[in-house]
Design brief:
Layout: E1 3-7, H1 13-20, E2 24-30, H2 33-42, E3 46-49, E4 65-68, H3 91-102, E5 106-112, H4 122-133, E6 136-144, H5 145-148, E7 156-164, H6 172-175, H7 189-192, H8 212-218, E8 226-229, E9 232-235, E10 257-260, E11 263-266, H9 269-275, H10 290-299, H11 303-319, H12 325-331
Parallel strand pairs: 1-2, 1-4, 2-3, 4-5
Antiparallel strand pairs: 5-7, 6-7, 8-9, 10-11
The structure holds S-adenosylmethionine.
The site of S-adenosylmethionine has 20 residues, from helix 1 and strand 2.
């Protein structure tokens, strides 16, 4: 089994995707203590609850795949647009320090799609050049969850997959990888949102809310996911959920809305996790505030998309003459 180490693991979207594809996660790292609580409920392997800058890569167990769904704010149009000038933008270079220490055969990175165009493409060029300069063959693609994960969630993310090329490699590793093909979207919003259930009262927007009149006027289709935008209702075309965000559920950022037989309500955290492809068996701490859960779901990757890419990665490793970390240890 190929071994994965996951930086910025959140609640484990990437980890779950790799495990579903047949890999094993050796360790993960996450600094947010609330995310760590959720993570630990779902995984038994080592989780370093630590700042990625404080954790020492030299002390970590060897891995085949280094994953990093690194913080996206500096790369997001909605964020600060500071890129590498912003401290958080340097997370990419931190990942590369781990790559140098651990020498994984594969790098798997994920970020918002605007990474590709940030600062007129300079940020992306630096990323690609840096990865290539470390001896990795570079692949990247923007995939939308609704097209590649069979979940009605409009979430475009850039995925970077890089294979280490060693002297003597036949070259097949680098060349035989390709991203998965799109899959037809057969699942609907109704497969995820429970329109019949009466959920906890705090999720409903009743007559006492100032926007109630607008909701009543515009929220007419049960198959549609809506958003309340300060003064108006936004309808999301194509019967998919808009991209869930880390800041939904806080301040002026609202959780998407649906109209059910019991009234207008926001999505529950569980539904948000389902829109990211987490299974029903995914567990969250019973006493955790919803603001944390919404943030965790919004921060996450879409599990089935990662799973499909991870399966491709594993196929390539299996085809190559590559020896996994475990096999090389056994041989010693
Ligand atoms: C976009 S989310 C990653 C989602 C995740 N990769 C997944 O598989 O679902 C970024 C994560 O990085 C974490 N993070 C931010 N700064 C960090 C740091 N200095 N050290 C470790 N983790 C950090 C955040 O708490 C957040 O959970």
């Amino acid at each position: 089994m190929y071994k994965v180490g996951s930086l910025y693991a959140g609640v484990g979207g990437i980890c779950r995707g790799f495990i579903n594809a047949g890999a094993e996660v050796s360790w993960a790292n996450e600094v947010d203590r609330h995310a760590c609580r959720t993570y630990r409920l779902n995984f038994g392997h080592k989780l370093y609850e630590e700042d990625v800058w404080k954790l020492n890569p030299e002390e970590l167990q060897g891995i085949d795949v280094l994953a990093g769904g690194f913080p996206c704010q500096p790369f997001s149009l909605a964020g600060y647009r500071k890129g590498f000038e912003d401290d958080r933008g340097n997370h990419f270079f931190r990942i590369m320090q781990y790559a140098r220490a651990l020498r994984p055969r594969v790098l798997f990175l994920e970020n918002v799609k605007n990474l590709a165009t940030h600062d007129k493409g300079k940020t992306y060029r630096v990323i690609e050049e840096t990865i290539r300069a470390e001896g990795y063959a570079f692949h990247a693609k923007v995939l939308n969850t609704k097209d590649y994960g069979n979940i009605p969630h409009n979430r475009e993310r850039i995925y970077i997959v890089a294979f280490k090329t060693e002297p003597g490699d036949s070259g097949c590793i680098a060349d035989s990888f390709s991203f998965p093909d799109p899959v037809p979207l057969s699942r609907t919003v109704a497969d995820i949102v429970d329109y019949e259930a009466r959920v906890d009262g705090r999720y409903y927007y009743g007559k006492e809310r100032s926007m109630y009149g607008q909701l009543k006027k515009y929220m007419r289709s049960p198959e549609t996911v809506y958003q309340w935008r300060r003064k108006y209702v936004r309808e999301n075309k194509g019967n998919v959920c808009p991209a869930l965000t880390a800041n939904m559920g806080t301040g002026g950022h609202n959780v998407p809305l649906v109209v059910t037989r019991h009234g207008f309500r926001k999505l529950t955290p569980r539904e948000c996790f389902a829109f990211q492809g987490f299974p029903d068996s995914f567990r969250t701490p019973g006493d955790m505030a919803n603001s944390h859960l919404y943030k965790q779901a919004g921060n996450s990757v879409s599990v089935p998309v990662v799973e499909r890419i991870a399966s491709r990665i594993i196929q390539v490793l299996e085809k190559s003459s590559f020896v996994s970390v475990r096999e090389s240890l056994q041989a010693k």
